[in-house]
From TrEMBL:
Pfam families: DPPIV_N, Peptidase_S9. It comes from Kitasatospora griseola (Streptomyces griseolosporeus). GO terms for molecular function: dipeptidyl-peptidase activity; serine-type endopeptidase activity. GO terms for biological process: proteolysis. This is Peptidase S9.
Amino acid sequence: MTTQKPHDTFPRQYARTNRFTTGAPRSFTVTPDGTRVLFLRSRGVEAPANLLWSLDVASGAETVLADPAVLLGGGAEELSDAERARRERSRETSAGIVGYVLDAAGRTAVFALSGRLFAVAVETGEARELPAATPLLDPRPSPDGRHVAYATPSGELRVTALDGSGDRLLAGPEGEGVSWGQAEFIAQEEMGRDRGHWWAPDGGALLAARVDDTPVRRWWIADPANPDRPPVEIAYPAAGTPNAEVGLWLLGLDGARTEIRWDHAAHPYLARVHWSAGGSPLIQVQARDQREQLVLEVDPSTGETTVLLTERDEDWLELFAGVPVRRADGQLVRIADHDGARVLMVGEQAVTDAELHVRSVLGLDGEQVLFSASCGAAEFERRPAGWLGVFTHGPEGVRELGDGALGAVRGGGTTVLTTADPRRPGTTVTVLRDGAEPLVIASFADTPLLAARPVFRFAGERRIPCAVLLPTGYDPDVDRELPVLMDPYGGPHGQRVVQAHNPHLTSQWFADQGFAVIVADGRGTPGHSPAWEKSINRRTAEITVADQVDALHALAEEFPLDLGRVAIRGWSYGGYLAAAAVLREPDVFHAAVAGAPVTEHDLYDTHYTERYYGDPAVEPEAYEANSVVALAPSLRRPLMIVHGLADDNVVVAHSLRLSTALLAAGRPHTVLPLSGVTHMTPQEDVAENLLLLQVQFLKDALGIA
C-alpha cells in the first residue's frame, strides 16, 4: 500500500507515516480463552488515528470495536499536558487510541481517548463513555470487571464503576508535588515502569505508588520563538541531585490503607510490581548505585515485606521487561547474569545457557514462559548479526517459536507473533493456534519509496555487529571509493543492527545520497553478553568511539570505503558519540552531526547517568573523562549541533554548553536550534528538512560535489 503524494520524497513520507508505523497493527492482547485477539491499527496514512480491533481466531474475521471518530462525534482529539508528557516518555507519536487494557475475563476493554474514559464490550462491540474526572490518565479495569481505576494530572487516583453507577476519589495529593497512581519521571524514562497502580486479583484493592517530587530540583524550559509564553516548569532529577520519594500503599475500595514497608534509604528505586492470581504481591526495589536489588514478597494484611532474592553486581544490575513474575505453579521467573551469560531462571534453575542471551519475558500462559533472546556468546555467529528470536519454556523445555521475531504475546494457547525480514518492508503479524491454520493480521502501512539493502557483518577482532548500506545501483567494479557515513546509536539499550528492513531505511536514504553508510553496534549496546554491555563502565566515550573506529577500519578491507572522507551522525546517545568521535579522533572522523547530544553527564538524569559514572560528588573524574565539553578546544573538524528547544529529556543546555565552550576556544561550528521540538522530531517539515540539511552539511564538509 502506497499513498504517494505529488513531489513526495522519502524524508517527507517517513515523517508523515510515523516511520511507516501508521496503519501497522500493534498492541496485541489475547483473551484468556485464546479465541480472540485485540489490537490497535489505523486505517492508513489518510486516517491515522488508531482504532481498537478484534480478530476472531476461529473465523479470521476482523471487527472494529472502537473508532475514535465515532466516539468523539467527529471532534478533534485533545491531549492534556500530562498526557503529552507521558507520550514523550514512551516515545508514542500515534493518534487515536494509543493503549487499552482488558479485564481478567477478556470481556471488557477500557481506554482513554481525548482525556475521557471509554469501555467496550469485546463480544458485542458496544462502546460507551464512563463517568470520570477528566482529563484522565492510564485507566485500568479491575480483574473482576466491576471497576476502573485511573489517575489524573492533579495527582488523584480515582475509581469509577463499569456499570456507570458512580465515580469516586480513592487517594488524593496531600500537598503540592504529591501524586498517586502514576509513575515518576525516572521510572518512565529509565526504568521501563510506565504505570503507578496495580489491581489485586480479587478486584477489592489496589497497590498504588505515592510520589512526592518536592525534593526534585526544578528546571524551566522556555520557548524563545514565542516569548509571550511562560516557561514550562519540570521536576528534573539530574545526576547527584535528589530523586522523587516513592512509596507504595495498598488501598482498599472499602477505604482501608496499608503502607508497604521496606528500607527506602538502602533501596529507594521501586522498579517493578507484580501481583498474580493466587499469590502475594512481588516488588523489586533497587539501590541508588544499582549494584544491589531485592525481590520482596508483600504481606497485604500488614504491609510487611520478606526478602525472596538479593542480587548484587560490581558494575550494575539491569532491569528487564516482564520480570520478576510468578508462574502459575508459584515458581519465580526472572532474568539473571549467570556464569557469564544472561539466562532465564525459573525458581532456582537456569533453564537456558550461553547459547541464548535472554532479553525479556513477554508473558506467561499457564506453565509456559514466553521470552525473547538473541544469540549468546557460545553461538554468537551461528545466526546473522542483529538476530532476535522468540522462545517458550515449559514442561517440554525450551522451544523456538519464531526466527527473526520482534515480539509475541500468548494466551489460552494462542500466540501472536511479530516477525521481520531485512529483505521486505514492514513486519508480519501471524496468529498461531494448535490445530488451526495460521492467520495473518493485515497491515495498512505505507510501502517506502525506497528499499533498504543492508549487508550484515561481524567486524574486526571483537566481531562488532554491523550493517553496511551502499547507494542503490552502486557497482564496485566501475564506481570509485565512497565517502563514509557512520550512523550509530552505539550506546546502552539501543540496538540499531537488527534483522529487519524498516529500521535501516534512513541509513539507506543517506547511502543513496552518495555515501557508504555503516551502522555499528559496539560495546555497550544490548544483545551480545553481559560483559559486552558492562565493559563501558566509567569509560563510555573511550570504548564506544574505539569500536566505531575498529568497525570502520575492519570493513574497509571488504567494502569500497574512502577513509580520507569519513563523517559520523547520531541522535541522543548517538549524538554524544558523534561529538565524542570527531573531538577524540579527528584523524579518523572528518565531520560530524550531533543531534540532541548529552555533552556533560551531570546535566542528565540520575538513574541512567549514575549507572555508568557513579555519584558526581564521589567520582568527578568519571564525569570529566567522558565529557565532550571538556574536549571543545580540540575541535578541528566541521561539527553541526542540532537540538530541540523543547526537549525535556536531553535539555538544550547540553548543546548550549558545548557551543559556548567551542566559542570560547575559538572553534568554528554550526548550531541548528529546532523551535518547539522535543527529543522526538515528529513534525513532517522539520523531519524532512533536518535530513536534507544534514546531507548538505556533510557533503560540504567532506568536499563532495
